[in-house]
Amino acid sequence: MSTLSAGYRMPAEGERHQQTWMLWPQRPDNWRLGGKPAQAAFVQVARAIAEFEPVSVGVNADQYIQACHQLQHDNIRVLEISSDDAWVRDTGPTFVFDANQQLTGIDWRFNAWGGLQGGLYFPWQRDDEVARKLLQIEGCRRVRADDLVMEGGAFHVDGEGTLLTTEECLLNRNRNPHLSREQLEEKLGYYLGIERVIWLPQGVYADETDGHVDNFCCFVRPGEVLLAWCDDPEDPNFSRCRAAEAVLENSRDAAGRSFVIHRLPLPEPLYMTAEEAAGVDFAEGSQPRQAGDRLAGSYINFLLVNGGLILPGFACPQDQEAVAILSELFADRRVVQLPGREILLGGGNIHCITQQQPWVKNG
Ligand code: KQY
């Protein structure tokens, strides 16, 4: 599909990592109680990943020392990096290999998931600078994608030329209104080495990112996908899951394979409590939080690490089933489930707060 190619290839998340990046949550208009419960949840995630591979955590100057204190671990490095919030999946670089196998970071334009047309906060300039800072720290070549607003959570790749995304997000007028579907495919071909884009219509209901695919559908391995699933016809996710399944059933990947589709149940419907909503500060221009808000919980929002898989749990009956399904599909990995509600209250989960850096021989 792409006439342009820079010779880049984005490795699949399941390929070996050098390390995983995270950022520190603190903004009080997104995280309740000044971010304290979220910080505890992020520490658990960082420590769990550190059992498998090194972790680097970027922290704003005012919280640097206390983050160092909470994150003490032989395999965790804490760095002073300013940011507006803590979603490094979206604000960090997307790592690719160039034609000479040199590690390169794609630095997308970031507009806080929609800019002034439904974005989640303003300003977002420090977030837009995160990728550049990470790449400088790593001494890694940077390619600034000034022609594209993009977030790392908006796509998943199989490492062999196929990319999953949603129309709800990528075709949203609040990202790249000047680009057609075909032009977006060209750019994904150029920056990520993609030859086939699978367009699912929507993501999980009430996902404030406009339906990021990393909360809805991912690859198990090339030719095999895992799709969030809902069996309740009264739930808005029922039709979303079926529409995505229909697209997948009628698609082939870049290698010409049809997909084996696995279903992963969504957690039962989850809602923000009055106490949780009351803990979030009001700020002009930021996404308001209200009691009764539907939360976009999903077990798809897991991270693959070297030899492991880290997924959220929501203290509900589907938690165990999710662990059982993932343990069977990823039989060669140790599956670790961590409390995910505090991260979910901020609008995402474990995949959204992490960014893998691929392993480089002698790197
Ligand atoms: O899901 C993500 N990749 C990011 C979620 C951002 C939520 C901001 N409140």
In short:
The chain contains eleven helices and 18 strands. With 363 residues, the chain is of the alpha/beta class.
Summarize the structure in words:
By secondary structure, this protein is an alpha/beta fold. It has a single domain (17-358), classed as 5-stranded Propeller (L-arginine/glycine Amidinotransferase, Chain A), CATH 3.75.10.10. 25% of the residues lie in helices and 25% in strands. It is built from 11 helices and 18 strands. It has helices at 36-50, 64-70, 88-91, 125-128, 130-138, 167-170, 181-192, 236-249, 274-278, 318-329, 341-345; strands at 17-23, 55-59, 76-80, 94-97, 103-109, 141-149, 156-157, 162-166, 196-200, 217-221, 224-229, 260-265, 270-271, 294-295, 303-305, 308-313, 334-339, 355-358. The strands form 6 sheets. The protein has a 4-stranded mixed β-sheet with strand order 3-2-1-18. A 3-stranded mixed β-sheet has the order 4-5-6, sandwiched between helices. A hairpin with a 2-residue loop joins strand 15 (303-305) and strand 16 (308-313). The protein is globular. Bound molecules: 6-aminohexanamide. The site of 6-aminohexanamide has 14 residues, from helix 3.
Overall form: globular
Average pLDDT, all residues: 97
- Topology as a string of helices (H) and strands (E): EHEHEHEEHHEEEHHEEEHEEHEEEHEHE
As a percent range, the share of helical residues equals 25-40%
Major sheet summary line: 4 strands, mixed
Helix count equals: 11
Strands across the major sheet, in which order?
A: 3-2-1-18
Q: What's the Cα radius of gyration?
A: 19 Å
Strand percentage, roughly?
Answer: 15-25%
Runs with pLDDT <50, length 5+?
A: none
Structural class: alpha/beta
* CATH architectural arrangement: 5-stranded Propeller
Report the span from N to C terminus: 33 Å
In CATH's first tier, which class applies? Alpha Beta
Number of domains: 1
* Small molecules bound: 6-aminohexanamide
Number of strands: 18
The CATH homologous superfamily is named L-arginine/glycine Amidinotransferase, Chain A
